[in-house]
Amino acid sequence: MNETEPITETQVPHLYRIELPTPFPVGNVNCYLAEGKPLTLIDCGPDSFEPAYRKLTAAFEALGYDLGELGRIVITHHHADHSGMAGRLAAETGAEIWTHEYNVPWLDRDGDLWGRRTRFMTALWRQGGVPEQVIERMLMVFEWVRQFYSRRCEVTHFLQEGDTIPLGGTVWKALYLPGHTVGMICPYQPEWRVLLSGDHLLKHITSNALIEGHDARTPDERRKPLLQYIEQLKRTAGMGIRLALTGHGEPIENVGDLIAERLEFYRQRADEILSAFEDGPHTLYEVTMRLFPHVPEPETFMAISEVLGHFDLLESEGRLRRELRDGVAYWHKIPEA
Ligand SMILES: [Zn+2]
After folding, report:
1. Cα 280 to ligand 1 centre (Å)
2. If pLDDT is split at 50, 70 and 90, which confidence band does 5 have?
3. How far is the CA of 265 from the centre of ligand 1 (A)?
4. Considering the entire predicted model, what is its pTM?
């Protein structure tokens, strides 16, 4: 393979995209089958959703394999559309599961993950001035999503930045790219400069940096997802990536241009959000409703995440500050010097 010329998806040897349906607004999810020993799947679709399981079985057959031959599953991040079927597939095939340790609580179902998450989110939303009935509905959406998460299974191998992942007869390296979620780990082939980007980079939609505890095991401290995400976007922009095989939609062949566009989008959105403070201090919820007055109910959480991410960004730039009053955070614009 010529390493300076552009590369397309079909030129990556022994790697096949399998698009699986999901019950989520995002639509289909991309999983990738890497041939060789062990036969490996990168991401695996939601659990408790038979159309995805059927499609996966059929895709294996179309490529000349039986699902039972699966030897390993690499999971880019814990979201149900990417990790949900892991437990079922591991039980049926004996496949190993490789992922970042931050994704483990979602897979081994150890302890009270969902309870802790509910408490963490509820406290954060209350501080953001979110009305109780909206909180209730967001928790109902979480509860609905929960069924598509993996049944209990064991992560057999932890992946961190720089670790080796043999895939399709060649060596890939793990890149740790927190932002969209805190446990995002993406296989990268450094000679070809091809990235299996999970939801770190998507072609048709901006990847949302979602509110999450720093680590699902100790979610008491809030991470700043958009700041993390922008840092990782800048890092990946400097790597000369020739092809990103994404978690949803089509591959990205001009990665540098796409990242520049995304960074510009966050810059403009931050300015737009700052302008909401011309008339005085506001809560997270007030600004979210001003920006997204018609947000569909299942997407309220994402809208709130997006706005809070930009508050963090503006705060880090010294343009916004936070003041707690009776347990509710009011954000103030800092006058420019
Ligand atoms: Zn995701």
Report:
1. 35
2. confident
3. 19
4. 0.95
DSSP 310: H
* Cβ-Cβ contacts under 8 Å for 149 (sequence gap 6 or more): 47, 80, 83, 84, 106
Q: Give me the torsion for CA of 139, 145, 147, 150, rounded to 10°.
A: -120
DSSP assignment string, 202-246: -SSSPPP----BSSTTSTTSBP-HHHHHHHHHHHHHTTT--EEEE
Q: Compute, in angstroms, the gap from residue 278 CA to the centroid of ligand 1.
A: 34
Which tokens sit at 175?
């890149």
Average pLDDT along the chain: 94
- The DSSP bridge partners found for residue 74 are 42, 98
- CA 101 / ligand 1 centre spacing (Å): 16
Task: Work out whether strand 170-176 and strand 164-167 pair parallel, antiparallel, or are unpaired.
Answer: antiparallel
